[in-house]
Amino acid sequence: MTQTLSIRALNRATLARQSLLARERTPVAEAVGRLLCMQAQEPKPPFLGLWTRLDDFEAAELHAALHDRTLVRATAMRATLHLMTAQDYTAFRTALQPVMDGAIRVLGDRAEGLDVGKTADAARALLRERPRTFNEIRALLQEKFPDVNERALGYAVRMCVPLIMAPTDDRWAFPRASEFALADSWLGSAPAAEPDVEALMLRYLAAYGPASAADAQTWSGLAALGEVFDRLRPRLRVFADDAGRELFDLPDAPRPDEDVPAPARFLPEFDSLVLAHADRRRIIADAHRPSLTTKNLRVRAVFLWDGFARGTWETEYKRRVATLRLRPFEPLPPEAVEALTAEGEALLRFVEPAAKETNVIEHDAARAIDSE
């Protein structure tokens, strides 16, 4: 008989793999590899995501791993920017190309006259000379293809040419207008010639399982993964969720007791954990899920209490005073406020080390919900 896993059991299993039940003393590159990827649509969130997962994390560690090219920031899952190990990027970039191809279709009429192959070849020639910003790339491509929409030219390059974003000494490692380099030039090796979707799914389960095929499709952007999991079935354990949906997992992956304590934690904007499943109840209740995303599609930072997202948070820095505002979905118990305040003050000291004063402020739950 198939074992059914409760929402709390799924929560604890996923938190264990995400280093969110206890901070770990792990090298940065190894930690990112265990997570498989970290959403990096903006440069700052991965620093905060690693701080909340690792013991004594320092920003210099991530800087060093980016500059020695052990870690890379590049387009990957769902055709968005992620932080990955160089090894994982070269292993899985080809498997994700169908996602990139699908993303190009959103251009619609703007793609009139666009020849993706010729555009990609021209961009490679430009980038073999040196890394360039996309402002440069678009302008130079427009000279070559004057009748094609400039934005369409740039987007085609982002999706169809494997690129690595070049780090700098900026505080969060990347300026607003970053330069991009060809992946094979930056890493000294090209992405794998053949896609290995099965290996990618096994790594997904290691970082985010137990999970369904629909969960994996939501996380990756790939389609028809039910067939992939059917091929992998002999190597996996099969469970069910509370709705009877089939969940897959690695046989030896951690699945701690659902009553294992989960500490207060702060997840940054765009954290991969809140985007990794079609059914996200293991992290955030369906009733609160609409509050997760802003009107312009920013994914809000959330805080966890007893393992689940209980509200959003943001910081402000003025006159050397660092403030973290908690915006709970519902009233929090006193012990939660106490734990989140201590954790929030530690986070503020990491984010704003020059602050003379740190404050964690809990907003009224009803007002916080109304403000969404």
Automatic annotation (TrEMBL):
<dbReference type="Pfam" id="PF06224">
    <property type="entry name" value="AlkZ-like"/>
</dbReference>
<dbReference type="InterPro" id="IPR009351">
    <property type="entry name" value="AlkZ-like"/>
</dbReference>
<protein>
    <recommendedName>
        <fullName>Winged helix DNA-binding domain-containing protein</fullName>
    </recommendedName>
</protein>
